[in-house]
Each structure stands twice: as C-alpha cells, then as structure tokens.
Amino acid sequence: MKALTYTAPGRFELIEKPKPEIIDPKDAVVRVTLSSICSSDLHILHGVVPQAEVGITVGHELVGIVEAVGSAVTKVKPGDRVAVNVETFCGECFYCKRGYVNNCNSGGWMLGCHIDGGQAEYVRVPYADNGLTPIPDNVSDEQALFVGDILATGYWAAKISEISEEDTVLITGAGPTGLCTLECVRLYKPLRIVVCEAYENRREFVRQHYPDVDVVEPTECLEVLKSLTEGRGADRVIEVAGGEDAFELAWRYARPNAIVTIVALYEKEQILPLPLMYGKNLTFKTGGVDACDCDKIMQLISEGKIDTTHLITHRYPLSRIQEAYDLFASRADNVIKTAIHPD
Ligand SMILES: [Zn+2]
Ligand SMILES: [Zn+2]
Q1: CA 193 to ligand 2 centroid distance, Å
Q2: Model-level pTM?
Q3: Terminus of the chain with fewer CB atoms < 10 Å: N or C?
Q4: Is the pLDDT confidence value at 243 over 90?
Q5: Closest ligand relative to 88 C-alpha
Q6: Where residue 120 sits, what CATH number does that domain have?
Q7: Ligand 2: distance of its center to the CA of 8 in Å?
Q8: Could you tell me the distance, in angstroms and rounded to a whole number, from the CA of residue 89 to the centre of ligand 2?
Q9: Cα-to-centroid distance, 201 and ligand 1 (Å)
C-alpha cells in the first residue's frame, strides 16, 4: 500500500509499505477513506517533534472503515465506519481512569508520530475500543474527519476553560484548531466571543461563517477587549495561535483572575515572566489534548450542534498528498484544511 513516510528530517515521501496486520488482540486495522494534514505533521517535518521516529507513516486525522479486529475488540466490527483518535490509550492506567488519556502510561500521541499513522491506505489502531469512534449513518466522512484530533482539542480546550454564560472568551488564532475551538466554545453560550487573528483572509473566514463573533487583529485586540469589558480584559483566553508573541499576548489580554488555556504547540520556548504578572492571579491550563470525549463530540455533530465541514477548503487524492502539504504549509489560496481521499 501507499504510505506517506517520514524518511528523514525535512522529508516525507509516499512509498510502498506492507498492509498493516493485527499484532495484538486489542488492535483493529482500518481502511482509510479520508485523512487530513495537521500543523503537527508540519512540526514533524520541521524536526521539532523529538519523539517522532524516522520511518513511520505520518498522519493522525482520519476516518475509515474497519477492515479487521483482534479477538479482544468489542466496540467495533469489520465494516463499521469510524473516526480514529489521535491518542492511543489503554483506558485502565492511573491517568486513563481520570480522563487524562494524553498521559496514558502506554500511549499518548503515538499514531503518525511513534507508530505508523493514517496518511496511507490502511492503518493499525492499537486499543481499538478506545481509539475508534463509530460514525452514525447521518454523519458524513467530511463531518467526522476532525473528531479525533483538532475537534477533540477544541472541545477539550473549551471544557477545561470553565466558561460561563457571563464570560467574554478570547480565542487567539483562527486556524483550523482555533475554528474548532470556536465551534466548541459556542456550546457554552458565553456572553461574547472575540477571535484575534493576524491574517485578513482568516478574519474574513470567521466573519463569513460566524457573524455573531467579534473578529479583531492583534494590534487592536487589547483595545477592543477593554471596550467590551469595562476595561478589564477577557475572562477566558484560549491561546491556539502559537506564533512568536502569542503566549505573551494571551496573558496580557486576560483580566485579573482569568483562566488562560494554552493549546498551541510552540516551536520555541516561551517565557513566563512572573514578576510582570504578579498580582494578576492568573490560572494557566496547558498542554496536549485529552481526547476522551470523541463519542460525545460525534453525538453533537449528529445532532447538528457542531459542524466543521466548511473548514475543508481543498481536496486531493493520496497520490498528490505532497501538493496538499505544499498548499497547507504555504497557506496559499485561503486554505484552512485539506482532505485526502484514496485514489
Ligand atoms: Zn494534529
Ligand atoms: Zn492508560
């Protein structure tokens, strides 16, 4: 089968590999019907993900049809349509039992990083009962494509931000994960949502699809926030942008005693200048997604409460995935997300 493979730092190649097989009773093999490219894939390409192993098939956002299951798999059977979870997790260890599946003792972000992922024709999914989410008949592959990764991230970011209906919530960054976060923040019906985004085409995308949201550029963000909150700043800040000054701006935009949730994956170290923020009494929540709510997210999609299909702006066959990478990396042609289908 064809598989996009991390062959060297700075290089992904579409090469021929054997079709994966069941190697553990808890495994499933999934035939990939749609996959996508994530900015984390670009981080691997740029060599800034130390746990990424040369030789692995990349890709961790995908949906497909179960091809085979091991003897211990009970949740899915061959022929089922499923979304694949970015996290591999056992469901039984100290962290999994508490919902912190990102920190699973025998898992975490494995697919497309530490083990073969899904920018391929087939993928083996360990702990399939945890790693696969059945797709209801009224949900299309495109609707389900982001459930296991960026939508899981957005849902988790909104959940841990403890949003109330009185809050002004600031989301910094209107890239794919920022937009998924926006979809999920809306579920909490906050008083106001402000989206701060540096690129005009992405600001326009938000205005077009979310007319009830305030959209600002970084230079005007603090001023607009202050005018909306009697000078206080945002009650909740969710930092998804990850750019050069994004972390500093995130805590500066927050009012005293706010919660600042950091979802962004930075390519450089960030500074937490405690003397400057002394007395601001901020609560920071940080890190990688605990993708433990995928069944709930799928249900919300099925009920029409979350819809991310408009994020798919470009479609390519697997044989042309390198073109999709070039487009996604360059942000040309107003791309938000690409969908990769089998040839
Ligand atoms: Zn990702
Ligand atoms: Zn575990």
Answers
A1: 35
A2: 0.95
A3: C
A4: no
A5: 2
A6: 3.90.180.10
A7: 30
A8: 5
A9: 22
Number of domains comprising the chain:
2
| Residue 244 in this model has a pLDDT that exceeds 90 | no
- CA of 39 from ligand 1 middle (Å) equals 6
Quote the Cα angle for 30-155-170, to 5°.
145
**Which ligand neighbours the alpha carbon of 41 most closely?**
1
Ligand positioned closest to the Cα atom of 292: 2
Specify whether 8 is located in the same domain as 132: yes
Of 286, 303, 324, the position where a domain reaches its end is 286
Q: How far apart are CA 162 and CA 139, in angstroms?
A: 29
Report CA(86)–ligand 1 centroid distance (Å): 7
How many angstroms separate the alpha carbon of residue 211 from the centre of ligand 2? 41
Q: Are residues 30 and 92 in the same domain?
A: yes
State whether 21 and 141 are in the same domain.
yes
Residues 145 and 225 in one domain: no
- Whichever domain contains 220, its CATH number is 3.40.50.720
Range of the domain at 34: 2-149+290-341
Interval 251-278: pLDDT, tens? 999 999 999 999 998 878 899 999 999 9
Same domain, 188 and 224: yes
Is the domain of 84 the same as that of 121?
yes
- Interval 214-237 mean pLDDT: 97
Rounded to the nearest angstrom, the distance between the alpha carbon of 277 and the centre of ligand 1 is: 31
Q: Are 138 and 175 in the same domain?
A: no
Does one domain contain both 107 and 246?
no
Residue 99 alpha carbon to ligand 2 centre in Å:
9
Task: Output the CA 313–ligand 1 centroid distance in Å.
Answer: 17
